[in-house]
Design brief:
By secondary structure, this protein is mainly beta. The protein is built from one helix and 43 strands. It is 1% helix and 35% strand.
Length: 683
């Protein structure tokens, strides 16, 4: 048995999109595991075999926005000693579970107990291909005091203890199923040889059937398969890589340790191998080698784009091995999740003995023109591409690292990773796209941490933080002045260039969140620093004027370390976003009634083609209670988008302009939590 120390994590209160803002320790440690669809019964492989426990959310406490899950589980009960190399498993339900029963498991609608009748699907974790066939058996688990803080496993019975191979034979490991028991995903290959390293699926007309499963296909084939199209949201659109490249139908999809979202909305998985500094018998880090890195999600919540999750669930790329994660669901375990947002899911990791929360609000927002979490891109063959950072807005405006811009191996950002810039050549370049030319309104924002004072001599030493073009000829720019104040400029259709200064100095060596906004209908500009409005000015109303310049972050090009003019930024930048709307604080007043709109209220050509004509319908299983569009931004000042439940795409994307409720959400304090994880090698 190997152990690894989970690194120090920052518990943040707010995040955007495919991010993981939180991480705390959990007693639900072990190896392969899964959870029933009501989110209460967990079965996990521990040293002696499979053990079962009940999640008791009534025992979760929350202090200053930080959950404590240390008492959240009932005592673990051994239900299956290791005799068949048991590890990863799917808990399949032929009908919704649990049902009320008596203590002996007999059905009773008024019984004081709850019974789970489960079909357990798994495979021999040590068998070599092609002997690693998926097989099933049946299990009953009886729970006493169900639905209370004292719920626990009372008894269990293997009602069908004999292992029955599925028919036709399906080979591989790590199965996971949907709530209806008819869609299964596992680690295998389309040729069904028993080899792994990619994700495949099969469907059955009979829930949890012992027979009748379709031949395995890569999950990239789902969007063209009539057996799943119209039934599962994961199959609604072709899957796309993190850079927007569409996977060909049945193209291999590299991944391991999958977990299907309950209604087939998406699948989570680990996307990249963990590099070894040294190999067996003294592996460093322990468990290195296989695909145990870059926890990711793809499907409906990510606009069918591969999302390498930025934040606590991925603390580094070279040390912390990640394997099995599952979720009780966004509604089943109140007060979890504690992070506020539109689409937030609580997750438990077994090998890492931790609890994290995933936020998928990027795809629900609808007004981002570009959103870069400034973390590494995972390519379509399951490797890190350290030369690019993905755009999770839905437009796939991928950024390319140039010069000395770089990713550290460990999380260094305001949220997860941030890109480091050397102050000379380091920058990120994004090719011109129409989506990056808003017309009616714009919000430019980022988290910035200077490493040195920009004032290096008596000359004009300002640093270009972001620009679509440069000062004088570009569409918009954000500058760190030599006195550490900030200035933003936008070009409008009259040819004029409007500007605003923040009137506040940001510190060296600390993170600051900065946002500059412009509303075309009123001509208003506003600056926010760490959620506080620091300045507001008004210019003659005019629409924005776009250019075909590329977007650059961190520098306009190679510059001297001490420039006289537009220099390169020295420090770290995180969470960069361009929005087609006014996002923070009190929106400007609307024009007088009857006044014509600036340009008809739409931005021609900004709709990403990947999801044309579709809208999110707020699927019941993916929309938690509360969180009706008021997810907080950084520390405070998030203005909820009135159309936040609509993603990029569709005939009309959320209209630009002020919009929103103007509601400010205050943060909870930050907490550093040291987490110790149990790491067991996959069998």
């Amino acid at each position: 048995m190997h152990r690894a120390v989970w690194p120090m994590l920052v518990f943040a209160t707010a995040a955007l999109g495919a991010t993981s803002p939180s991480g705390v320790g959990s007693p639900m440690g072990g190896n392969g595991h899964n959870v029933t669809f009501d989110g209460r019964l967990f079965v996990v492989r521990r040293g002696a075999g499979w053990e079962a426990a009940v999640l008791r959310p009534q025992r979760v406490t929350v202090s200053n926005g930080v959950p404590d899950v240390s008492q959240a589980f009932s005592p673990f009960v051994l239900i299956q000693p290791e005799v068949n190399n048991e590890n990863a498993l799917a808990l399949c339900e032929e009908t919704p579970q649990p049902r009320r029963c008596n203590s002996d498991g007999t059905p009773n609608a008024n019984g004081a107990y709850a019974c789970y009748e489960l079909v357990v699907i798994e495979s021999d974790a040590l068998a070599q291909p092609p002997a690693n066939v998926l097989r099933q058996r049946r299990l009953r688990v009886v729970i006493s005091s169900p639905g209370t803080a004292n719920a626990e496993v009372d008894s269990f019975t293997w009602t069908q203890p004999n292992l029955t191979p599925l028919s036709p034979a399906l080979r591989g490991i790590e199965p996971t199923v949907t709530r209806d028991g008819k869609l299964m995903v596992w680690q295998g290959v389309p040729a069904n040889t028993g080899q792994g390293d990619t994700l495949v699926y099969s469907v059955s007309s009979t829930p949890c059937g012992a027979s009748g499963w379709s031949a395995p296909k890569s999950i990239t084939a789902m969007s063209s398969d009539p057996l799943v199209v119209g039934k599962y949201k994961l199959a609604e659109r072709p899957l796309r890589g993190a850079d927007g490249t569409v996977f060909a139908s049945n193209q291999l999809f590299y991944g391991a340790y999958p977990w299907l979202f309950p209604d087939g909305e998406a699948v989570s998985f680990t996307a990249v191998g963990m590099p070894c500094r040294s190999g067996p018998p003294n592996e460093d880090p322990p468990g290195c080698g296989p695909r145990r890195n870059a926890f990711s999600v793809i499907g409906y919540p990510t606009n069918w784009q591969l999302a390498h999750v930025d934040g606590a669930v991925n603390p580094d790329t070279d040390q912390t091995v990640r394997l099995f994660f599952s979720s009780p669901g966004p509604k089943a375990a109140s007060p979890l999740p504690v992070t506020r947002g539109v689409d937030v899911w609580p997750f438990f990791g077994s090998n890492t003995s931790n609890y994290v929360e995933l936020v998928f609000d990027d795809g629900l927002d609808g007004r981002y023109a570009g959103l870069w979490h400034m973390n590494e891109l995972v390519d379509n063959v399951g490797r890190f591409d350290l030369t690019r950072t993905p755009d999770s807005s839905g437009y796939s405006n991928t950024g390319t690292l140039v010069g000395a811009a770089s990713f550290p191996s460990k999380n260094n950002g305001r949220l997860g990773k941030a890109i480091a810039f050397d102050g000379v050549s380091g920058r990120v370049e994004v090719r011109h796209a129409t989506s990056l030319n808003p017309v009616n309104a714009i919000t430019i924002e980022m988290a910035v941490k200077p490493h040195s004072d920009p004032d290096c001599d008596a000359n004009n030493n300002y640093r270009l933080l972001l620009g679509k073009g440069n000062i004088g000829n570009g569409s918009y720019t954000l500058v760190l002045e030599e006195n550490r104040d900030l200035q933003a400029r936008v070009r409008v259709a009259t040819g004029a260039q409007y500007n605003i200064v923040a009137r506040t100095q940001i510190p060296i060596g600390q993170w600051s969140h900065v946002a500059a906004q412009y509303d075309a209908a009123s001509g208003t500009m506003a600056f926010f620093v760490d959620g506080v409005e620091t300045n507001r000015v008004t210019h003659p109303p005019a629409p924005l004027a776009g250019t075909t310049h590329p977007l650059t972050i961190g520098a306009p090009g190679n510059r001297a370390a001490c420039p006289n003019g537009d220099g390169a930024f020295h420090g770290e930048i995180d969470e960069v976003a361009i929005s087609r709307g006014w996002r923070y604080g009190t929106p400007p007043p609307s024009p007088d009634a009857g006044a014509p709109p600036v340009d008809g209220g739409t931005d021609a050509g900004t709709v990403p083609p990947v999801d044309a004509g579709s809208k999110r319908d707020g699927g019941a299983s993916s929309q938690p209670d509360g969180g009706t569009g008021t997810s907080p931004g950084w520390d405070a000042g998030w203005t909820a988008d009135g159309g936040s439940a609509q993603p990029p795409g569709g005939a009309k994307v959320a209209a630009e302009g002020p919009g929103g409720c103007g509601c400010n959400v205050a943060p909870a304090p930050l907490l550093l939590a040291a987490l110790v994880s149990l790491l067991r090698r996959r069998r």
